[in-house]
Design brief:
Length: 258
């Protein structure tokens, strides 16, 4: 299929590459000329404006938005909704608050345009491993996008989880679980590191836990890579900006009495 990718950061650029490598046609837009040039080097058609992007697609048009959550996503989706026609679909693949979906769905529906929320997990490894896709939307809108979903996801890694907003809700809880797992691993390895009397090899322990252990996971695979000698892990700052999902998950737990 032919679709557009709006936003060529680490996620959007790799998703674009995976789509192209599997035979899809992608029209790409990013505010950064450097990012557009990088996509063009892969054989991707690039445009300098959203107006040009809308004109480069044939109905039913599909535009996948991968820009920061909040105002950038809202304004981009609103602009696309004004440029698109009935039957077209906008996919929000960012880490948006699921509560923001309903007003956007209503705004686009007034123009006959559908909004699909695609919770996307995979990080920078998604290019080769595939992306887990948790998708919310109407059956009709999701069907239009499914060729792209099946390409981006590994086998068994895509599901239409519910109506609009459901994809973001599931992805929010997914990230809440992810942060809890990361914290548990971090605290566990910190305890191990505080036992000098055993002279424990943390990399070796992470390595063996990947096989047969009940705590094995993809996050543990990444921890094992980070703990390898000369990995540069000691130069990584142990702090990331709050993007919302962990906090929203805690708030949902409180509100729902969980």
């Amino acid at each position: 299929m032919k679709l557009a990718m709006v936003g060529l950061g680490k996620m959007g650029a790799n998703m674009t590459q995976r789509l192209v490598e599997h035979g899809h046609e992608v029209v790409a837009f990013d505010l950064s000329e450097e990012a557009r040039n990088g996509a063009a080097a892969l054989g991707v058609e690039t445009v300098a404006t959203l107006e040009q992007l809308a004109g480069a697609l044939a109905p039913p048009r599909v535009a996948w938005v991968m820009v920061p959550a909040g105002a950038p996503t809202d304004s981009t989706i609103t602009t696309l909704g004004n440029l698109f026609a009935p039957g077209d679909v906008v996919v929000d693949g960012g880490n948006s608050d699921y509560k923001d979906s309903a007003p956007l769905v209503a705004k686009l529906a007034a123009k006959g345009v559908a909004l699909v929320d695609a919770g996307t997990s995979g990080g920078i490894w998604g290019l080769t491993e595939g992306y887990c896709l948790m998708v919310g939307g109407t059956k009709e809108a999701v069907a239009v996008c499914e060729p792209a979903f099946h390409t981006l996801a590994p086998e068994g890694g895509y599901a239409h989880v519910g109506p609009p907003g459901a994809g973001h809700f599931v992805k929010m809880v997914h990230n809440g679980i992810e942060y809890g797992l990361m914290q548990a691993y971090a605290e566990g390895f910190e305890i191990l590191s505080k036992a000098p009397e055993f002279d424990l090899d943390l990399h070796e322990i992470a390595s063996i836990w990947r096989y047969g252990s009940v705590v094995r996971s993809w996050l543990l695979e990444l921890a094992e890579r980070a703990l390898r000698p000369e990995s540069g892990f000691d130069r990584i700052e142990g702090v990331v900006a709050d993007s919302g999902e962990g906090r929203w998950t805690v708030e949902e737990a409180i509100d729902r009495g969980v």
